[in-house]
Amino acid sequence: MRAYKDTISFDGVSGPGVIVDFEKSWRLLFWMKLWAGASQWDLGNDLWITNEWMEVNSIEDSRWFEPMMDIEARYSRLDILESGDARARVHWHYAPCNPEYMLFNGNTTADEYYTVHPDGIAVRKLVGWPGNESDYGGNPNFWELGEFIMSYPGRRRAFESGASRETLMKQRERKAREILETERWFTIQDIGGDEIVYSWPMPSPRRAVCSEHPEIADFNAYIMVEHLKDRPDHFVIIPHNKALYPYRPSDWPPAFTHSPGCHEDHPQFLLWAGVNTTPVSYGFCYTPFERPPRPTVWNMLTGATEDSSPAHMSEIAASWLNRATIQITSEGPPRQLRLAYMGYRYSERAYRIDKGKIPGDKVSFVMSPTEWNVGAWAGYKKLPEDFGKIKVINPAFIIKDWGSSTVSVRLDGEVLDASEYRWQMTQDNLIMWLDRDVEEDTEFEITP
Fold first, then answer.
1. pLDDT confidence of 299, banded at 50, 70, 90?
2. Is the pTM of this model over 0.90?
3. CATH code, 2-318
4. What distance in Å separates the CA atoms of residue 302 and residue 238, rounded to the nearest whole number?
5. How far is CA 246 from the centre of its chain?
6. Which helix (H) or strand (E) holds 340?
7. Where are the alpha helices (DSSP H) in 390-443?
8. What is the residue extent of each domain of the chain?
9. Cis peptide before 295 (omega within 30 of 0)
10. Can you say how many angstroms the Cα of residue 182 is from the centroid of all Cα atoms in its chain?
11. Tens-digit pLDDT profile for residues 397-447
């Protein structure tokens, strides 16, 4: 896989951007033209879906403060932090502005870091910097972090042509019937398999998901999937954990009084209505005046898959959120070896080991899948008893101070073929991604 800068063309428009290619039927793009650098999942057959961005709305300005208003990309910047066989990392800096390029409260900005592995799945780490420099815009109505916005040829031209709303809706309806699995278009499930299914068109009027499904307050995670025809399905996974995804329960603003919600302690999801091809919005909160601290960090898992069955999506979410244990087995002083395992980094979907604390060349450890750790999740519901230990899907490792330009890997004594793992060096750190799943205690031995 690799990440590289190139000119990207779509719907008759060309402009600079970044392409992350992991040799799948889908790609991850970042496009400066029209979208000011926003991420786009290119799902093939002329369909893009963006995860959107951080945006804010003010009671004093009927327009949005968002990077899509930054037509000239005055505030946006794209940087490739890593590009190699094992992973790519892309940084997008932007500022939510209004059409006059004014920033909410003077200096509201955001940084997004996408860590992408060869399975075509990325962690989206969003760092928000709510403004504190001026009172421009007054108090916020809400802080939104994402939507599912589709792009396809003809949509932009229809908007720019000044077509009537009726014409635009008819075009959107035709396209939706062409690309959406209309009977099972959008699903929200938790890791235990409880699932909410929406068909297309969506119910009207707009409403909070919890107003009809208060049971989502007990979900361990929110696995959202768009089910598409003749393409991989796009997904976003949000943890029900304020340490990874901060939120506040919402008192919905006046525009949403038809949907008061359940007022329970969970992240907020607002459905779109009718023939829209955007199913849902989600964010920090939808309560006027509330604002996140400066800074606040949110983590989401996103990508595409050719197997969007509830069982497989549960495995992907659980593997990311329920870390395995790592026991260093290399020889050396016990305390020093304990310090060698640095922990699991959710924002990069990777286990970290400090090679500098391990004597000798070899790094050896045992990875042990664990059962769902309810205590770490503030008492949210247990998984079904037959769920068992959480399989580790395609584990990735960061080994600090590797100190070599070669790598060999054994699993339980078996030498892996070079095709079974990917690796790269970033500064003096080894980044390794395994093209295998770990379902039971497994001994790793990594040598130069």
1. very high
2. yes
3. 2.70.98
4. 9
5. 14
6. helix 334-340
7. none
8. 2-318, 323-447
9. yes
10. 24
11. 999 999 899 999 999 999 999 999 999 999 999 999 999 999 999 999 999
